Amino acid sequence: MEARYFQKFQEGNSRMLTYYFDKHVRALLVFAYHIVYDHDVAEEIVQDAFTKLWFSKANISTEGHLKSFLYKVTRHRAIDYLRSHTPITSIPTTELPDDLLEADTNLLAQIIHAETLQLVYEEVKKLSPVQQRVFDLTFLEGLSAEEISARLDMTPNAVYIARSKALALLRKVCQDKDILLLIGMIEIIEYCRSKGF
Prior knowledge:
This protein is 77% helix and 0% strand. The chain is built from ten helices and no strands. 25% of the residues are buried. The longest helix has 23 residues, at 14-36. The protein is an all-alpha fold.
């Protein structure tokens, strides 16, 4: 079935672009955000990547190539953004931090991280609306329990309970899922411990 979707995409079926957008957008947003640290810019970068994908579809040979293409374009656009928006006093425009210029091993780690978060997000969508919101504010926006309680008009204890229930449900689901999801859960649990949750 996936092969048929890819063939229709190559033939110019715009619904298949929407299919691939829905399939990859969340992970690409996380990936871009971890380079530029700006949600609006990350969204623009990912939209540009999909636009470039559409106009390059004749040169894309497989679904794996499509995915790789999206990550590479997203990474390059993010680096271009940093080059053009970094103040001269902090980093010369011809140089970037070493971590952005390292070999593709770092890129692979970033892709795995983004894809793991995508798998976690698919499970998060199955949580209650309150648990979803608390989870997003904790792990996507990095807010503390106090900040979340103020934003959602909840007590810090209610935030803690919602987060704990969400993590417990996700742990249970993870027992039957891909190892990458387990790695993602380990990262989330470690994050909670490091923040004192």
